[in-house]
Every structure is written in C-alpha cells, then in structure tokens.
C-alpha cells in the first residue's frame, strides 16, 4: 500500500537557518514559497543564486590563480563569473531548503503505521507531520526512512527540510558531496512515497549464498510496532530469472513464536522483533551468477498476506594466493571509476536504464567493474549491474584528506560505521556488490582505525571482499590491496616515470610486486592520461552544469591564434592518450598472478582543475578519435599479448617476440594462435610481410604461461617503414581475439654529403644564414628559453591540480605531407618511434614569431596556457634558409636508429628542391628563443 509523493511541492530557501525557529513547518507557513518538482533539486529548477567570486564551494581549489591572474580577469566580473576548475552550475545554493505539501491518508490505512521513504537526499533531512517533528536522517548512501506512526485518515501537511551544508567532515573533495563531480545539490531524488506497513512485518531478509551446497541461508528480521511479534508463519520461495530457462524453487516454511511477548507486556514495553534463519535449497541444477552468466534469483518471503522481495545470485567471491576469484575461478579486475558525474542534473541517476547504459558502455570497452570513488550509488545501479553481470566496488562517502582525517576521534569515525552498516543492510544481497572500501585515500591514524573497520565488515557480512581504502593503507586485514603501485606514472614522478625515462618495449610487468605481496593487488587509479578539450562537446551541456571551463580554454586558444587547430590538437593528443592507456593496461594483463586495475578513468573527470583523462566524455559518449571496439582489443576477458624487447628496429636486426594470452573467460579455450606482420597504413593494414603459427592447444584461464616464441631472421624487411604485428587467437568455435602493435624499421642511415651547416651555435647559425647559407640549428640541451617541460607522455591528470607537474605538453602534432616525413614514417601525432627525439627535447615558445609561421613539429601546450610551441620549424633569415630543431638528435640508446634516420630526413629535405620557407624572420627574433 503506497502513495507516490512525486510531483509539485511548495519550496522555500532558508540560507540563514531560521525556518525551524519561525515554525515554517506549519501549514502554508513557507515564506515566498515557490512551486517545485520533487524528485529533483532546487538548483536544477533555478532556485538559488548565480555563481559569484564569493560562492562557498564544497571542494578545494588547488590552483588559485583564477582569483589573481590577469588572464582570468574577464571571467571574474559581476554576473560574468566563469570558473576553470570544474563544471559550473547555472544556479548555486548551499544551506537549508524547505519542501511542503498536503497528503491524503485513505480510510483503509486507519491504524496502520505509515513510513515515509525518500530514496536519496542530499544531505540532512528533517520531517514534520503537521506540527509534530518526526526526526532527522543524514545518510549520503541509503534511503531516508521516517516512521510517521499511525495517521488519522484525511488531509495532513507534510514538511521536509533538507540541508546540504557539511553535516560531517567527510572531506571537502569526497565525491558524495563535492562540487568537483555531482555538485553540492539540495533536494530529494528517486522514489518518494508513503507506505502503509502491517503491525507485524518483515523488515529485512539477508541472503547468504552457499555455492558448495547449491543453497542459500536466508536471515529474516521481523518487526512489530506492538508488544512483541506473537506467533506466525513465514513462507520463503524463489524463482530464477535473467537467463534462459526460468526455474521455480520450492518454498520453505518456517514458524516463529515470540515467547517474550508476555514478559514484554508485563513490563509495559512496546515494539518487538524476531529473527529467523532458514536454508533454502536451490536444487542440483542451480545456476551461478558472474560476469559471463548473470543468473539471478528473486526471493519472496510471505507473512500474514504481506510479501517482502529481494534479488540475489549464487555467487561467492574470494581470493586464492594473489588472485581474486569469483565462484572459484581466477578473475582479473578490469575496472574504472564512477565518480558521480551527471552533468545534466548534478545528481546521480535513479533509474535502471540509465545505469544499464553506463554498464554496457563499460563492458563494450572490455571492463568488468565500476569503482564508486567515495560514494555509493542508488538501488537502480545495483539492479542494472546484477542483470548485466557487472561488478561493483562500493565505497563509503568519505575522502578524509585535504584537511579531514580518520581515526582521530572526529565525528567522521562514527559516521563511517553508520554508513557502512546502512550500505551493507540496504545493498548487501546484490551479487554485483563484490568489493568494498571505506572510502578514498585517507589521512590520519588510518592503519589502526581501518584494520578494525575491515574486521567489523567481514564479521558483519562476509559475502564480499574488503579493503581498507582505495589508495592505502595496505594492511594485513585486507582481502586485497588497492594501492597506487604498480603503475606507469606515480604522483610526482614527472620525467622519471616509465614512459618518459625508458625506451619503449612491451616486456615490463609487475611480477616483483606480486611476489612481494601476500594478497591480490588491484592497482589504484592507473592511467590519468590527458587529451585536449573537445569544444564540440560544449553543446551537450543543456542542464544544470555548464562548461564554462571549456569556454575559457577555447578563448585562450583563440587569443594565441590557434583556434583553427583545436580539432588537430584533440586528435593528436587523443592518439597519444590511447597509446599510453594501451601499454599501461597490457603491462597489468601480462603480469602473472596480478589482481587487476582501476582506471582513472575511461571517462572524463570534470573537476579537480578539469581532468580530461577519458576516451569517453563526461556523458560516457565516445570521443571521436576512439571506439569501444578498438579499446576492447587490448582490454577484455581474452587479450593476446606480444612481449617485444623494443618498438624500433634496424632492418638488419633479428625480430624476436614472445606471445602470452591473458585469458580470464568463463572456461579454457581450445584455440589456434597465429601472428602476422603487415605494412601499416595508419588506421589499417596492407601487404603481408611475414606470418606464421605460434601454436595450437588449450588456453588456460589465467596469464601465467608463454604460449610461444617467434624469431624472424635479419633481412626479412629491408625498407624503412612502419609495420604492424598482429596476434590472433581463433577458438575452435570460430570466435577470434586480436591485438596488434606498431613497429618501426629503419635502414642504416646513408652518408650524405651536403653543404648544409649543422650547428648548435645560435650566433654562428644566424650569421651564416644571413650570408645565404642553408643552416640546421640544433638546440643544445638546456639552451631554449622556455618554462615548458616536454616528455614523451601526455599530461598526467592536469597541470592545475598537480601543481604543474611535468610534462606540460600533450604530445606533438605535425603535417604528415611535409617532405621531411618522406623518410621518417609518422602519422601526425606522437607514436613510439618519437621516443628518442622527444627524450630531452625542448619546447620553443613561438609567441614572438609571425602568426603565419606553422611549425613542422608542434608540441601541444596544456589548455591552461595554450601557448604556440615549436620543436621544428623553417624560416628565411637574410639571404639564407634556416631550420631550427629543438628535438633530441643524439642517440639515447646505443645503436638506436631513430635519431640518425631523422637527421638524415632533415638533411635530405634541406638539400632537396622542396626547401622553400614561406616566412621571413629577423635574426634577433630567432636569437630570442634561446637563453643568453
């Protein structure tokens, strides 16, 4: 028996917090009331204030240059404020808000207890029925429920007060409350209803699967609002659904008799409870739940004509050594973050289809888990994941850092336990809920405090794995460690990180970490590789959140004369981003015994300075340089892997590689594994250069064995060109899994007699050019006048939040039709063959050069600066022609052919008929690029 409360409510804001003292809960007492729709928020319905410089944001602004830097002056004016550090709501409000409406209680509810159910409230709610104050709730993770007691039939006034100020210091950047992500919304969303409850009713049913015995232990709590629960019968049954072949589980009947009822009555006590445990056999043909076969059971418990339903799966998650297991089978966690990013509404979706879409997009990218960073999703997310066969790591609403802390006796300590118990009680039956952390990256006495918390959780509900926190600490109580090691870039590594310090290969793995750790490792927030903003995305923001940050970045680009390169920067940086993610994921997949990873992330994070780290945007839509199909080649249940000692070869070298298959499917495969080398045409393949069979046989579940090795004799390829190595796994049933790697082969550089002057002496270069010479000016290390630090990788997270950690560039772009690239294969963006050239390269600031000058090789500056940079350009100086190169032309790795090949390509161009610089520059302008 339910009354839906969705629809119009009267609403009023109470920024000074005087409403309770002034008795706004009385009928028709809200001052200046406005009609507003619930479910919803006051901000999305434009009840609140415009953003100003005085807006009291919830969340830290690490880079505060917005408030002082002259570049941002146009965005700080009254009525014109645009912030660069996150998406900006068109309306902001922080404080108490009141909602009021009349309700009609029907006659047949007489004598029944009435419960008010508010699915998701942000944050603290207080309820009045007429003049009677019912109470307050403050959960950020589960529904707020208020027992209104028996209500006389007829019309009554129901009043709700919601306060979205910081009730408990869970950390200003926690995604449960922060403006970095969902926004600090105020209101109530999801289901809003009144329920008439029987005097004696089932309050909850906890279902504990027993995989070995193909049964489930059902733990039922019965509640009474009178003196004890008396005697009764509970009938429990179940039906299997969500997979072919529905199955009805025979009912089990249990009787209860509350012997305490007489004693309670004598002592004048009211309210009672009873607990029943019973075993529900599911049958020998019971089907298990996992990512490959999400068989679900709907359990129904009947008592006195009322029913209680819940959904569960026959699923057990555990560990075996350093592996995570689901139903006893080794499982590799391929996760990404869900950080509560909902730009249209500013609050999370509460409908199943919205979550089904998100889950299916992630599955299409080969992922199998969402980690909910410092927040817990609504019921609809769990339902969608159950049905789709997808895993969740849920967290408490806490990121106790940046001023907050745990284990120090603060209110957040008790609040964590409150929220944990609520989450486990509300969502614990869902089979998709396989892991839980207390929250993210704690500060304080975290090891001691969280060791007790993990023990508490495991004792209370052993149906999932627990870890202290996402990030740290790695403590003995953990079932698995969710730590930021290992990964290719750790905070503060800058140019010492793997991509920027070590020449490219595909052999690196994390075996040393596995061998040193007694528990499974799921690496924390790997990736974080940035891409340039896609300004076409701005048109999607038709709701509460506005991309004012994108507008600022687009204007910076326009001011520096590069607005026409926005698309070029997007695609060039995007290709580098994918390259970084591919190798990062493959390094984890080729590590025997490794537990898995959490990406940060496959989708953009719009806060913390604007972290455009996704191949998907904030709406989970594909960016135009990427596709799910391409991503799933290197991220999925079955991924072929090639272990290559390097990416760049001389044509007179022997090519060798090993083949490993990361197979974490439902069953072992009977398959044929083959390889092929083809001429690469960029997005596709051309002629086959060589091919062969790696082997045939069983591909076991796991990734611990080399399936085969391949060696090609020197001389199989005699030309300078890019080749694509393809490894293909073909199942006996015809299913094919493919993965590929680009390789570069350079013929030995020929001796080239030229009249070109090569020098790193700036004065000499300018003097000779003015006299008519053709000059190649190469920048000696540390001689360029610049504060831009380049590396091979793209920007990590973003330069604003990381306090300008290097590298500061998002790769390079170049026009492939330029004659320089006739003898140096490239596709217009950074790729592995550029590693030596970019190692130690310097970005020249071209702001003083004519706007018509287009660099041949152009580093892409971070969008916060959008400066015009160059690493290779050509000009006329006096009567001569000058090419300026700040790329590295000195071999980093002995015998590496790249720098020699690139130097030869430059000299052949400089001595050829195509050399015709279009822009003339005065010598002092060139000299100004270098330190004096």
Automatic annotation (TrEMBL):
Give one GO term, molecular function aspect: hydrolase activity, hydrolyzing O-glycosyl compounds
Gene3D superfamilies xrefs: Galactose-binding domain-like, Glycosidases
Domain Glycoside hydrolase family 2 immunoglobulin-like beta-sandwich, chain residue ranges per copy:
200-315
| Superkingdom in the source lineage | Bacteria
Which Pfam families did the record assign?
Glyco_hydro_2
GO BP terms: carbohydrate metabolic process
Sequence similarity: Belongs to the glycosyl hydrolase 2 family.
**Name of this chain's protein:** Glycoside hydrolase family 2 immunoglobulin-like beta-sandwich domain-containing protein
Traced from the root, the source organism's taxonomic lineage reads: Bacteria, Bacillati, Actinomycetota, Actinomycetes, Kineosporiales
């Amino acid at each position: 028996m339910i009354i839906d409360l969705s629809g119009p409510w009267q609403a009023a804001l109470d920024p000074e917090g005087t409403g309770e003292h002034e008795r706004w809960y009385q009928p028709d007492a809200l001052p200046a009331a406005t009609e507003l729709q619930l479910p919803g928020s006051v901000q999305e319905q434009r009840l609140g204030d415009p953003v100003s410089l005085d807006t009291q944001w919830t969340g830290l602004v690490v880079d505060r240059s917005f408030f002082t830097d002259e570049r941002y002056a146009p965005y700080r004016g009254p009525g014109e404020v645009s912030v660069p550090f996150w998406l900006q709501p068109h309306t902001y409000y922080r404080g108490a808000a009141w909602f009021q409406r009349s309700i009609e209680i029907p006659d047949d509810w007489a004598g029944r207890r009435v419960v008010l159910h508010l699915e998701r409230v942000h944050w603290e709610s207080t309820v009045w029925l007429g003049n009677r104050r019912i109470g307050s709730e403050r959960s950020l993770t589960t529904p707020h429920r208020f027992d209104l007691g028996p209500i006389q039939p007829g019309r009554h006034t129901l009043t709700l007060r919601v306060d979205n100020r910081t009730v408990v210091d869970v950390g200003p950047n926690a995604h449960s409350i922060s403006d970095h992500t969902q926004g600090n919304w105020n209101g109530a969303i999801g289901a809003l209803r009144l329920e008439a409850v029987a005097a004696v009713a089932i309050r909850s049913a906890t279902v504990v699967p027993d995989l070995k015995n193909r049964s489930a232990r059902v733990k039922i709590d019965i509640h009474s609002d009178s003196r004890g629960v008396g005697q009764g019968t509970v009938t429990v049954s179940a039906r299997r659904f969500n997979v072919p072949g529905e199955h009805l589980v025979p009912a089990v009947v249990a009787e209860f008799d509350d012997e305490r009822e007489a004693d309670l009555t004598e002592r004048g006590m009211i309210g009672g409870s009873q607990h029943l445990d019973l075993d529900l056999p599911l049958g020998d043909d019971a089907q298990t739940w996992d990512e490959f076969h999400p068989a679900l059971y709907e359990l129904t418990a009947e008592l006195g004509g009322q029913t209680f339903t819940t959904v569960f799966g026959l699923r057990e998650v555990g560990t075996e050594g350093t592996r995570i297991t689901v139903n006893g089978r080794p499982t590799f966690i391929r996760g990404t973050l869900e950080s509560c990013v909902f730009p249209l509404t500013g609050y999370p979706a509460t409908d199943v289809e919205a979550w089904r879409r998100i889950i299916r997009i992630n599955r299409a990218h080969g992922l199998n888990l969402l980690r909910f960073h410092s927040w817990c999703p609504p019921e609809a997310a769990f339902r969608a994941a159950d049905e789709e066969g997808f895993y969740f790591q849920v967290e408490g609403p806490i990121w106790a850092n940046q001023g907050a802390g745990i284990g120090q006796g603060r209110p957040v300590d008790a609040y964590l336990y409150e929220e944990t118990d609520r989450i486990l009680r509300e969502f614990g039956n869902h089979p998709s809920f396989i892991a839980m952390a207390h929250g993210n990256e704690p500060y304080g006495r975290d090891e001691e405090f969280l060791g007790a918390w993990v023990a508490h959780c495991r004792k209370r509900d052993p149906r999932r794995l627990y870890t202290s926190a996402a990030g740290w600490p790695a403590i003995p109580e953990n079932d698995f460690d969710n730590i930021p090691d290992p990964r290719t870039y750790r905070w503060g590594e800058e140019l010492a990180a793997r991509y920027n310090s070590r020449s490219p290969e595909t052999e690196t793995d994390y075996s040393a970490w596995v061998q040193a750790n007694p528990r499974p490792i799921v690496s924390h927030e790997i990736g974080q590789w940035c891409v340039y903003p896609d300004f076409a995305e701005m048109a999607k923001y038709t709701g509460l959140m506005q991309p004012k940050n994108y507008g600022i970045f687009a204007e910076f680009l326009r001011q520096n004369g590069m607005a026409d390169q926005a698309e070029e920067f997007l695609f060039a940086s995007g290709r580098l981003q994918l390259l970084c993610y591919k190798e990062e994921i493959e390094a984890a997949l080729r590590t025997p015994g490794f537990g898995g990873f959490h990406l940060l992330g496959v989708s953009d994070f719009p806060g913390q300075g604007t972290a455009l780290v996704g191949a998907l945007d904030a709406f989970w839509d594909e960016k135009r340089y990427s596709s799910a199909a391409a991503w799933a080649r290197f991220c999925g249940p079955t991924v072929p892997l090639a272990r290559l000692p390097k990416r760049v070869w001389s044509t007179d070298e022997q090519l060798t590689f090993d083949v490993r298959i990361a197979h974490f499917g439902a069953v072992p495969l009977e398959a044929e594994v083959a390889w092929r080398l083809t001429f690469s045409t960029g997005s596709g393949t051309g002629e086959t250069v060589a091919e062969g069979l790696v082997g045939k046989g069983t591909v076991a579940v796991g990734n611990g064995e080399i399936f085969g090795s391949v060696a090609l004799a020197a001389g199989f390829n005699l030309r300078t060109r890019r080749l694509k190595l393809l490894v293909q796994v073909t199942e006996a049933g015809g299913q094919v899994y493919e993965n590929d790697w680009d390789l570069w082969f350079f013929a030995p550089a020929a001796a080239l007699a030229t009249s070109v002057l090569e020098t790193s002496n700036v004065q000499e270069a300018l003097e000779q050019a003015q006299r008519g010479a053709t000059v190649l000016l190469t920048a000696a290390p540390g001689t360029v006048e610049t504060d831009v630090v380049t590396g091979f990788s793209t920007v990590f997270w973003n330069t604003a939040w990381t306090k300008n950690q290097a590298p500061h560039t998002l790769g390079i772009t170049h026009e492939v039709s330029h004659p320089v690239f006739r003898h140096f294969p490239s596709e217009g963006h950074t790729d592995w063959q550029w590693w030596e050239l970019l190692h130690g390269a310097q970005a020249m600031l071209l702001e003083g050069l004519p706007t018509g000058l287009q660099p041949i090789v152009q580093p892409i500056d971070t969008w916060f600066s959008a400066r015009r940079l160059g690493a290779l350009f050509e000009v006329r100086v006096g009567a001569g022609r000058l090419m300026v190169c700040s790329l590295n032309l000195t071999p980093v790795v002995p015998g590496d052919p790249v720098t020699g090949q690139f130097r030869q390509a430059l000299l052949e161009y400089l001595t050829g008929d195509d050399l015709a610089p279009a822009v003339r520059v005065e010598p002092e302008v060139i000299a100004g690029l270098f330190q004096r």
